[in-house]
């Protein structure tokens, strides 16, 4: 039994740390996933006021949850204060199992965000994983009194303190800059028009045309292959027809819903992305407010002009941010839905340098000095 307990601790501890570190690389990604859960629950009528309120604090919840996950994993490995940490571990894994179970059984989520965007797994796999972890956690919980710390109290406290500091420092860094490991489809080196195409060999959705008719007050559905034998226009009254999903395929591009429109609502996505030479994107979500990014932009813009690199400001809030560009009038504003902007720009704002539609580099606003250096070096 002792060996089972030890193996359980190692598996749970390592998986918690691993999961926490992957999510710490992109805490905004987890925050957006939390907001997705809150929105689904609100739309379902479950305490919508509370859900909308919680959604506003999703990033804070994300940062705390990630740090807690890493710390709990370390505590389980070193075996310190397990009478206390076993309770926290049990509460967390029950909560995670509920979330992944809901994501799987409701069918409303493509992923639960358990391992971030770097290791996307389906809700079903996530749920099975958490069931296994719950069983291992129960072993740890009921045998918690038998777990002896591997280090002295001072050593254990020091290790846990380092885990806390590291988790918050890492998350603070990537929120100010960009994720250390970029696992998103807008990453450096990707050709964006290619990312917007359905992958070769992908399996499309299988659908069947379904008819909906009304007969004597009852609604009846059938396909073209199984029309009722007594079908008659005088008895059956047409309601609608729709494509019913029979089998879900995987024919979905890595980048979808990324549509750039002019101020006159003309779709200019491919015209811009297929532009020859260099061009720059400045992604701005909502209103970032006054900040150092404005002074940095004033330094970058003349260099872009000198290099003959057009600047496109991509935003979901053109009216709200237009005044920031009074001193840099030669820019093109393009409208875009906020969802793809959230994916493209983990820091707000984020600057992209592209060549022939390929992302040469991108920088969060804290690294625009580096952007200035690289842009200046073009052609040298």
Task: Walk me through what this model shows.
The structure is a single chain. This protein is of the alpha/beta class. It has helices at residues 2-24, 27-43, 48-56, 58-78, 82-106, 123-142, 153-176, 192-195, 269-273, 292-306, 318-321, 338-344, 368-376, and strands at residues 206-215, 218-223, 237-247, 278-284, 311-315, 332-335, 350-355, 358-364. A 5-stranded mixed sheet has the order 6-5-4-7-8, sandwiched between helices. The longest helix has 25 residues, at 82-106. Helix 2 (27-43) packs antiparallel against helix 3, helix 4 packs across helix 5 and helix 4 packs antiparallel against helix 7. The chain folds into 3 domains: 2-176, no CATH class; 206-247, no CATH class; 269-376, Glutaredoxin, CATH 3.40.30. The mean pLDDT is 87. It starts with a helix and ends with a helix.
Could you give a quick summary of the protein structure above?
By secondary structure, the chain is an alpha/beta fold.
List keywords for this structure.
380 residues, alpha/beta, Glutaredoxin, 3 domains, five-stranded mixed β-sheet, three-stranded antiparallel β-sheet, 13 helices, 8 strands
**What does the largest sheet look like?**
5 strands, mixed
Strand order of the largest sheet: 6-5-4-7-8
Beta content comes to: 5-15%
Number of strands: 8
Helix content: 40-55%
Rounded mean pLDDT is 87
Low-confidence stretches: none
Structural class: alpha/beta
Q: Helix count?
A: 13
Number of domains: 3
Return Rg in Å.
Answer: 26 Å
Give helix and strand order, one letter per element, not per position.
HHHHHHHHEEEHEHEHEHEEH
First and last CA, distance: 67 Å
- Tell me the overall shape: flat
């Amino acid at each position: 039994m002792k060996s089972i307990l030890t193996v359980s601790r190692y598996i749970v501890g390592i998986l918690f740390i691993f999961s926490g570190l992957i999510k710490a690389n992109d805490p905004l990604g987890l925050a957006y996933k939390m907001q997705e859960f809150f929105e689904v629950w609100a739309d379902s009528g479950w305490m919508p006021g509370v859900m909308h309120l919680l959604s506003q604090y999703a990033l804070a919840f994300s940062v705390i949850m990630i740090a807690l996950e890493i710390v709990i994993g370390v505590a389980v490995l070193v075996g310190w204060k397990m009478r206390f940490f076993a309770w926290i571990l049990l509460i967390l894994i029950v909560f995670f199992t509920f979330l992944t179970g809901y994501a799987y059984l409701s069918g409303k989520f493509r992923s639960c965000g358990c391992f971030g965007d770097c290791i996307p797994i389906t809700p079903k796999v996530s749920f099975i994983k958490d069931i296994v972890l719950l069983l291992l956690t129960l072993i740890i919980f009921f045998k918690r009194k038998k777990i002896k710390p591997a280090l002295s109290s001072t050593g254990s406290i020091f290790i846990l303190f380092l885990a806390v500091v590291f988790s918050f420092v890492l998350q603070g860094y990537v929120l100010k800059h960009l994720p250390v490991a970029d696992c998103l489809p807008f990453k450096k080196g990707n050709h964006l028009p290619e990312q917007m195409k359905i992958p070769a060999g992908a399996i499309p959705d299988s659908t069947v045309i379904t008819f909906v008719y009304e007969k004597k007050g009852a609604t009846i559905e059938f396909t073209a292959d199984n029309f009722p034998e007594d079908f008659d226009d005088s008895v059956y009254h047409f309601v609608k027809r729709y494509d019913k999903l029979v089998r879900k395929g995987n024919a979905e591009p890595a980048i979808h819903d990324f549509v750039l429109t002019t101020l006159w609502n003309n779709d200019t996505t491919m015209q811009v992305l297929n532009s020859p030479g260099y061009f720059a994107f400045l992604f701005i979500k909502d209103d970032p407010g006054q900040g150092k990014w404005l002074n940095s932009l004033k330094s970058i813009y003349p260099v872009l002009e000198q290099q003959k690199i057009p600047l496109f400001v991509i935003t979901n809030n053109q009216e709200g941010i237009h005044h920031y560009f009074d001193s840099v009038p030669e820019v093109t504003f393009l409208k875009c839905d906020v969802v793809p902007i959230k994916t493209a720009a983990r820091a707000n704002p984020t600057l992209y340098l592209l060549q022939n539609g390929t992302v040469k580099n991108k920088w969060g606003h804290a690294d625009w000095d580096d952007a200035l250096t690289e842009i200046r070096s073009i052609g040298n």
